[in-house]
Amino acid sequence: IGEIGYDRFTQATHEMHDKTTGRFKAFKKKFPVDTLSDLQRIFDTDILFVLEYLELIDSNQHSRLRHCFDMRNHSAHPGQAPITGENLYSFFSDITQIVLKNPKFAVAPKS
Asked: pLDDT for 72-91, tens place per residue?
């Protein structure tokens, strides 16, 4: 997000807020983001919607990353559905493929 600019992120939240039809019409938040510190105050689930709006991820990737987020939360508050090795493999596979190897998230080399 720092690479594309905090102003673009802020602009996207304003555009999403103003939508009256389509997938993003229920998004009714505006986030003024000028720094990494500002961004850190935004819920991960809201960031996922903005990343989808900016077409850095698609709706399927959004869903899978949301599942990773939920799994992370469940591992911190375990219950009767423990996180297994297979779950962990799926988690890291999704993070690797959708985020770390996604060329849309590549950071330009510093010169």
From this structure: 988 887 788 888 899 999 99
